[in-house]
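Input record (one chain):
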Amino acid sequence: MDPALELADFRRRVVLLHLAQPQTGRAGVESFRERRDALFREHPQSALTDEQKADFEGLSYYPYDPDAVIRTRLDAPRQSDGLEIDTGGEDGAIRYDRVGDLATPWGALTLYWMRGYGGGLFLPLRDGTAGAETYGAGRYLTDTAKGTFGRGLELDDSGGAVLDLNYAYNPSCAYHSRWACPLAPPENRLEAPIRAGELAYPGAD
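The corresponding structure, as predicted from the sequence alone:
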């Protein structure tokens, strides 16, 4: 199959993965992780190389933590100007608008909107576990341009928001250096450790 068609199919499967039932609680997280492992193991557009897939036994996560589900609000952003985040790859710097701030027990996080065709919501973060327990450059809670709708971030019409850090996941560059990713800017780098979600991948290359 043409690689572009394979990538389109991978994106479709990511959307279906995030919208599948069950959606909430321990059962939702465990089902999601099992299905995500299968996608990483089997799909030709997985972030893993063929060599990594040969030894793949599943991604590593912290145990499910109900206290990592945070109910908050999307408030006006602390800064109203846009910013650029460099991917370090052929995509260059990607421009984002700040669309709001989310208060959490670990500190405030900024939610971004990616400019450009189609756009998308983007919520990267780096916390106190980075480099020791989790990927050193940080993780994502959502990147809707890549199909990660819901689960990590849910917004409602009244301005309410639910963050579920059990779904914090690694960007593709956490698995292999062939990938380049936009990473958390300084305002989304938290000092406190958040021991929920995906751990560093031990077989990274």
